[in-house]
Amino acid sequence: MDDIGQYAPAEDANAQFGPIDPGAESTVAESSNSINGPNGTDTPKYPTPTRSLVHLRQPPPRLAEMRTRLFELKEKIELRVEEFELYWPYVDNVWVRQHRANADKSGRVITDYYACRLQRPTYNPSKGLRPEGKPARKKQIRQGGTCQKRLKTVHHNGGYTGITIIPVGDQDEHTHDLDHIDEVKRTSVLMDIARSEVMRGYMPASVFTVMNEDPEKLAMSGGRHLNRNDVRNASQAWRQHYKAELRVHEGYKYDHGNGIVRQDFIDPTLTNNFTDIIDAAMSGPSPLPPNTLRFPEELQAMLEPYLPPKGLAVDPSGLQLPHVTLTYATSMDSCLTLAPGLQTILSGPESKAMTHFLRSRHDAILIGVGTATADDPGLNCRLEGVGGFGGIGWEGQPRPVIIDPGARWVVTPESRILKTVHEGKGRGPWIIIATGFAMDPMRLEMLKFYGGKYLGLTEFDNRHRLRWEAILKALSAEGIRSVMIEGGGKVINDLLLPNHSHLVNSAVVTIAPTYLGREGLLVSPAPKHDESGRPQPVLRFKNVKWQPMGEDIVMCAKVRDEDVEK
Fold it and tell me: Domain named Bacterial bifunctional deaminase-reductase C-terminal: which ranges (predicted)?
């Protein structure tokens, strides 16, 4: 898993149409033949552990954070398949799969439904018949039916492969905390590690002691309540067939009355095998892509007042419009390009990094079809720490949105934006069109294959253009809370007009030290006149701040009076 540090990536998904293999439902592989125990002891068929103490000593990056997020599930979480397989076993003591829905028509989307473990009915262990003279086992009654929190996982396989975890149902929060469920049930990771050590010939008491060597990492994996009985139970079936004497770990000893303890002196030539089997993929973080960008924290703080507030709530009704930031790079003579349709690079490396930081702070990035056709953009974020560049899943990656009323833009697998999606470094684009066009079914299927879609709108203004209010409401209804609008010229000039500028919250404009000339694509909205026909300023920004960045200078400003008051 290159993008999160210590784990090697899974193979790329096969980017072609067809059904997907749902895959194994367990993280423990089962051997088809008998396996050998320590010292060549033959044991019957038994599940082969897939983890060792290495996984406890070197847990996945951000494990504590991911366990909390997957437990609370305050909003949807998008993970790559290998990330899901990595983190989900650390919360499989919380969530129990209820059923699998039918796959969609393409066979590439599979949905599973899960419920909190405490939704199960109260467990009353059967007493059963015991042999004469043998005391009854003390089985704990587990109180059930106390939590109704649920979720679903949507596995998409196509031009990109990922799993989206979505909260469902009426209950927003658990009725208990994560520590309580860790006390009720152990994760499969802990039980697998315990089983693997016993199967190497170690006493359960010794395994328990070694696993508790680092209580902080044990708790991070959900093992704060792990006890010796858990280790015994994890390996009981195997120990019934393995008759040789079990031993303690090297460097430990049995101390009567204290159990297994460390020796006062450990011979440096004696090392536990688990310290020597660290996988190369776990020995250090994987390198970031060479085009990864970094942006200084002090400049991030300067931009903060002009960015969408953190923690904005999703409004499924679409009534609450997204926060809109207008941003673009221009020349000294207010030109975007040397000529219409001609891609022109204006931003220096410093302001380019700033642009990618801005992208990381918005849910969507929007351009017009002219820019999409002329520039063939990737429309992703390359900032260090976002998904595909050191982050988890697609966090920090904005959703590309292309305004294409006439459905002119023909996207193909060779388009840069879809290549970016296939590489796991961006999201599938949403294309906003005017309804009524006879779309080629293959174009629809192609976009869906890469995680994108078409959004059809029917609301037009008096110039027969799609209304900006309708566009923003549609995005809000899709869960978009903030939009960064980058161009092109028609889009920018249109939003600077008095009848549209009230939709824009902030503006971040990069000015490069160059003149492009009179043939350039100009940023200059249509003129405004008063009742007597006298020219008036179209728009004046507020709360303006200027910041040099390399050879460029960046202007940050508020657009609406109500945002100035905030």
Answer: 322-554
Q: Quote helix, strand, coil % in the chain, to nearest 5.
A: 25, 20, 50
More confident residue, 435 or 33: 435
Report whether 122 contacts 144 (CB < 8 A). yes
**What region, left, alpha or beta, does residue 171 occupy, with left being phi > 0 and alpha being psi -120 to 50 degrees?**
beta
For residue 564, give the nearest of 507, 499, 509 by alpha carbon: 507
Q: CA angle at residue 263 from 257 to 267, to 5 degrees?
A: 160
Q: Is residue 298 classed as helix, strand or coil in its secondary structure?
A: helix
Distance in angstroms (rounded) separating the CA atoms of residues 510 and 336: 11
| 262, two tokens | 């460390």
Per-residue pLDDT averaged across 110-129, rounded?
A: 83
Q: What are the residues whose beta carbons fall under 8 Å from the beta carbon of 554, sequence distance 6 or more?
A: 351, 354, 508, 509, 510, 511, 546, 547, 548
Give the domains, in start order, of the chain with CATH numbers.
Answer: 2-124+137-278 (no CATH), 317-565 (3.40.430.10)
* Secondary structure of residue 67 in the 3-state scheme: helix
Do residues 428 and 421 make contact, with C-beta atoms less than 8 angstroms apart?
A: yes
**Dihedral in degrees, nearest 10, Cα atoms 383, 74, 77, 454:** -90
- Among 408, 366, 358, 340, which Cα is nearest to 508's? 358
Whether 428 contacts 419, CB under 8 Å: no
Please give the angle made by the CA atoms of 210, 267 and 36, to the nearest 5 degrees: 55
Q: Burial level of 299, CB count in 10 A (0-12/13-18/19+)?
A: middle
Sign of CA dihedral 186, 191, 197, 202: positive
Q: CA-based Rg of the chain, rounded to a whole angstrom?
A: 29
DSSP designation for 46: -
Can you read off the two tokens belonging to residue 208? Answer: 């328990």
Q: What are the φ/ψ torsions at residue 236 (nearest 5 degrees)?
A: -60, -45
User: CA angle, corner 392, sides to 390 and 398, nearest 5?
Assistant: 90
Which pair of structure tokens corresponds to residue 507? 């503006």
Q: Enumerate residues 6+ apart whose C-beta is below 8 A from 267.
A: 251
pLDDT for 18 beyond 90 = no
Distance CA 424, CA 388 (A): 6
Q: Are 401 and 453 in contact (CB under 8 A)?
A: no
Residue range 324-383, pLDDT digits in tens: 999 999 999 999 999 998 989 999 999 999 999 999 999 999 999 999 999 999 999 999
Q: How far apart are the C-alpha atoms of 293 and 37, rounded to whole Å?
A: 50
Burial code (b: 16+ CB inside 10 Å, e: under 16) for 253-271 equals eeeeeeebeeeeeeeeeee
> What's the CA gap between 566 and 564, in Å, rounded?
5
Retrieve residue 165's tokens: 């975890």
Query: How far apart, in whole angstroms, are the C-alpha atoms of residue 156 and residue 168?
Result: 18
pLDDT in tens, 238-268: 888 877 888 999 889 888 777 888 876 554 4
Helices (H), 376-465: 416-422, 441-449
Judge whether 503 and 532 are in contact, CB under 8 Å.
Answer: no
